[in-house]
Write a structure and sequence with these properties.
The complex is a heterodimer of chains A (about 375) and B (about 250). Chain A has about 375 residues and is of the alpha/beta class. Chain A has one domain. Helix content of chain A is about 20%, strand content about 40%. In chain A, the strands form 2 sheets. Chain A has a 9-stranded mixed sheet with strand order 1-4-6-8-10-12-14-16-18, covered by helices on one side. The longest helix of chain A has 16 residues. Chain A is globular and about 70 Å long. Chain B has about 250 residues and is an alpha/beta fold. Chain B is built from 10 helices and 12 strands. In chain B, the strands form 3 sheets. A 6-stranded mixed sheet of chain B has the order 6-9-10-3-11-12, sandwiched between helices. Chain B has a 4-stranded antiparallel sheet with strand order 2-1-4-5, covered by helices on one side. In chain B, helix 2 packs across helix 3 and helix 6 runs parallel beside helix 7. The longest helix of chain B is centred in the middle third of the chain and has 15 residues. Chain B starts with a strand and ends with a helix. The chains are: A alpha/beta (about 375), B alpha/beta (about 250).
Chain lengths: ~375, ~250
C-alpha cells in the first residue's frame, strides 16, 4: 500500500516518505500515524503553533541515517509494545510512524527513579515513542536528558499517564545542541488528585523545542510547570506548553525564565484552555526573559482561553535587559562586572528551579546554569 | 583623604555639577546639604563611578590618587563605600552570600587573603548586634521585601562588614523612624575613627544631630556655595535654602 504523500515535500520530508514506503507489514496504527504526519508535513512558520520555530527549514539533511541506539534507559523499560492508535500531532505522529512501537514504563509505588538519556550522534536521526504509566497513588521521578550533536535530529514523543492521586516529578534537560535539532513532545494526563511537578532546562540548538501538552482530566489535579532557557551564539530554544483544564478545581502554576545572549532566540508559548466544566480553576503563568545583547530575541505568546466563570487565571510576561541599577549597586560593593552579572543572572534563573523537590536534581540544574554562565565557549560571553 | 577639584558633570547634555570643590581629610565627617535638585545624588554617583556620570572636567583624588577613570568595583576595593538613597532589592541573591562575595572580591583586588567563613559569620553576628537586626533578615534575599528603614539598616550593616576607608551616606536618614535613625546613627558612629572619612549627603538636619559633623557644606546650583561648622546645619534647618537658591539662580 502506498503511503500518503506529503504535499510539495522538502528533501527531508521526501526522505521520510521513501523510508516509510519501504516498510513492510506496517500495522494500521503506524499507517495512520504516517497519514497524520503527511497531512501536515514538517511544521513551518506558517503553522500558528510553530511560527517562532520553523522546523521545516531547520532540518536540512535528507540522508540522516536512523540511529537506533541513541537512547539509554535506566532501569530498562517494562515492555515494548506496538502502537495503540496514532498520535494526532505531526511530530509525535512522525515519531510513531518511524518507531512503530513504544517503550513502556509501568511505575508503581516502589518504582526507582527513571533516567532516559538520549545522545543523537552527528548527522544521525532518532525517533522514539515512550509511554509512562504511573499507578494510582504512586510517586515517580523521571529525568530526561537530550543531546543532539551537529546535524543530528531527535524527535521523541513521550506520554505520561498519572493514575488517581499519583505524583510525577519530571525533569527535562536539553543539553547544548550546537547545530542539531531536538523536538520532544510530551503528553501528560492527570487523573483525579494527581500532581505533576515539571522543570525544564534548555540550552538550545539550531532548533530545540520542548513541548508539553497537559490535560487536567480529573478533579483536584495540580501542576507546577517551570522551566528555563539559556541561549548564546545563534541557538534557539522553544518551551511550549498547552494546558487544558477540563475538570473542576485543578491548578496550574508556571514560572519560565529565559536568558538570551548574542543572537540567541528564545521562545515561550503558553496556552491555558479552561473549559466550561472546569469551575474553580486556578491557573497562573509567568514568563520573564533577559536579553543580554542587541541581537538577542525572546518571543513570548501567552494565551488564556477561558470558558468557565468561577476561575482565577493570570499571566505575566516581561522581556528586558539586565537591571543596570542592580549591577551598579553590586559593583559599588566591590564585585567586578562579570561576577555581578553572573550573580544577578543566576538569581534570576534559580527562580525556575525553586520547586524541584529533589535536592540533588535542583542542585544539578543550578550547577548546569552556573556552568553555562562561566563557560567562555558556550556561555553568555562566548563569541558569536 | 578625599579631594574633589573643580568637578563638572553633565547628564543628558545638562550640566549638574558646575565646578564643585571639596576636601574631606581622614578622620573627619563632612556634611553636604542642599535643596532638591542641587546635584547631591549626582555627586554620590560621580564619586563611586556610575556609568553615565563621568566628569567632563575636574578631578576626584582619593588618598592622593586620581580615581576619575576607575570602575565602581575598583573604587570599592580602594575603600569607597556608598550607602544608597534607594538601596536595590536583589531577589534570589542571599544577603550573606552577597556580602561575603563582595568582601572577598575587594580583598582579592587588593591582593589580600579571603575571609574565612567562620570569621565572616562572627563579624556578621557582631554587626547585626550593633544594628539590632533580626537574624531572620540576614537569611533572606538582599533587601527583598524589606521596608525602607530595613534597607537603610542593611546598607550600614554592609559598611560594617566591608570596613571601607571612606563612606558616602546619601540621604541615609530618609525613611527612618526616630528609633531606627538612632540605631543607624550609632552604627555609623561606630565606624568613625581617625583614619576614616565620611561624607554625609542630606536634605535635613536629622542625622547630623546624632553624628555631629566637623564641617557642613551647602551644595546649590551645582557647586559648594557655603561652608561652616555644625552650626550651619542648624541655620539651614531654621532658614531653609532660599538665600542660596536665589544666589545660584
Amino acid at each position: 500500500m502506498t503511503p500518503l504523500a506529503v504535499k510539495n515535500p522538502t528533501p527531508v520530508e521526501q526522505g521520510y516518505a521513501d523510508a516509510f514506503a519501504t516498510l513492510e507489514g506496517a500495522d494500521q496504527a503506524r499507517l495512520d500515524a504516517w497519514a497524520n504526519f503527511a497531512a501536515v508535513g514538517l511544521p513551518n512558520r506558517r503553522v500558528e503553533e510553530w511560527k517562532y520555530s520553523d522546523l521545516r527549514s531547520a532540518l536540512k539533511d535528507p540522508d540522516a541515517p536512523l540511529s537506533l541506539n541513541a537512547i539509554g534507559f535506566s532501569p530498562a523499560p517494562s515492555d515494548r509494545v506496538l502502537l495503540e492508535g496514532a498520535p494526532a500531532l505531526p511530530m509525535p505522529a512522525l515519531a510513531a510512524s518511524m518507531a512503530g512501537a513504544a517503550d513502556v514504563y509501568r511505575l508503581d509505588g516502589d518504582a526507582e527513579p527513571v533516567w532516559i538519556e538520549v545522545n543523537v550522534p552527528e548527522g544521525a536521526a532518532h525517533h522514539r515513542v515512550v509511554d509512562v504509566e504511573i499507578a494510582p497513588g504512586a510517586t515517580a521521578m523521571v529525568q530526561e536528558t537530550y543531546r543532539v550533536e551537529d546535524g543530528a535530529f531527535l524527535n521523541l514523543a513521550i506520554r505520561y499517564h498519572l493514575g488517581e492521586g499519583a505524583t510525577l516529578q519530571r525533569i527535562v534537560r536539553q543539553e547544548d545542541g550546537g547545530e542539531g535539532v531536538a523536538v520532544v513532545t510530551a503528553n501528560v494526563t492527570l487523573n483525579t488528585g494527581a500532581k505533576l511537578n515539571q522543570t525544564t532546562l534548555a540550552f538550545g540548538a539550531r532548533l530545540a523545542r520542548l513541548e508539553t501538552h497537559l490535560d487536567h482530566a480529573g478533579e483536584n489535579s495540580d501542576a507546577q510547570m517551570d522551566g528555563a532557557y539559556l541561549l548564546t551564539g545563534r541557538r534557539h530554544a522553544d518551551i511550549t506548553t498547552l494546558v487544558s483544564h477540563c475538570e473542576p478545581d485543578c491548578a496550574t502554576r508556571q514560572t519560565v525564565k529565559g536568558v538570551v545572549a548574542q543572537r540567541g532566540n528564545g521562545v515561550f508559548q503558553g496556552r491555558y484552555l479552561v473549559q466550561r466544566a472546569a469551575q474553580g480553576t486556578d491557573a497562573r503563568m509567568h514568563h520573564d526573559a533577559i536579553l543580554l545583547d542587541d541581537g538577542a530575541q525572546a518571543n513570548a505568546k501567552p494565551e488564556l482561553l477561558i470558558y468557565a466563570d468561577d476561575v482565577q487565571c493570570a499571566h505575566g510576561n516581561t522581556v528586558g535587559a539586565l537591571d543596570e541599577d542592580a549591577l551598579f549597586y553590586m559593583r559599588s560593593r566591590g564585585l567586578p562586572e562579570a561576577a555581578a552579572r553572573a550573580l544577578l543572572i543566576e538569581a534570576f534563573v534559580a527562580a525556575a528551579f525553586g520547586n524541584v523537590q529533589n535536592d540533588t536534581a535542583r542542585e544539578q540544574m543550578l550547577e548546569a546554569a552556573r556552568g553555562w554562565l562561566a563557560d567562555p565557549d558556550t556561555g553568555p560571553e562566548a563569541a558569536a | 583623604m578625599l579631594s574633589i577639584k573643580d568637578l563638572h558633570v553633565a547628564l543628558d547634555g545638562k550640566e549638574i555639577l558646575k565646578g564643585l570643590s571639596l576636601d574631606v581629610p581622614a578622620g573627619e565627617v563632612h556634611a553636604v546639604m542642599g535643596p532638591n535638585g542641587a546635584g547631591k545624588s549626582t555627586l554620590s554617583y560621580v564619586l563611586t563611578g556610575r556609568e553615565g556620570y563621568e566628569p567632563s572636567a575636574g578631578d576626584i583624588e582619593f588618598e592622593g590618587e586620581v580615581i576619575n577613570g576607575l570602575s565602581p568595583d575598583e573604587r570599592a576595593a580602594k575603600g569607597l563605600f556608598l550607602s544608597f538613597q534607594y538601596p536595590l532589592e536583589l531577589p534570589g541573591v542571599p544577603t550573606l552570600t552577597f556580602i561575603r562575595t563582595a568582601v572577598n572580591a575587594q580583598r582579592k583586588a587588593r591582593g589580600e587573603e579571603e575571609i574565612s567563613a567562620p570569621d565572616f559569620m562572627k563579624a556578621a553576628r557582631e554587626a547585626a548586634k550593633t544594628l539590632r537586626m533580626d537574624s531572620e533578615m540576614l537569611k533572606r534575599s538582599l533587601n527583598a521585601g524589606f521596608s525602607g528603614g530595613e534597607k537603610k539598616r542593611m546598607e550600614i550593616f554592609q559598611a560594617l562588614l566591608l570596613e571601607p576607608k571612606f563612606l558616602i551616606l546619601d540621604e541615609t536618614d530618609s525613611g527612618l523612624d526616630i528609633d531606627a535613625l538612632r540605631v543607624v546613627a550609632e552604627g555609623v558612629e561606630s565606624l568613625r575613627n581617625e583614619n576614616r572619612g565620611m561624607l554625609v549627603i542630606t536634605h535635613y538636619q536629622r542625622l547630623l544631630d546624632h553624628l555631629s559633623p566637623d564641617r557642613v557644606h551647602v551644595l546649590a546650583g551645582g557647586r559648594i556655595v557655603d561652608s561652616g561648622g555644625p552650626e550651619l546645619a542648624r541655620e539651614l534647618e531654621a532658614a531653609g535654602y532660599d538665600k542660596y537658591l536665589s544666589e545660584a539662580a
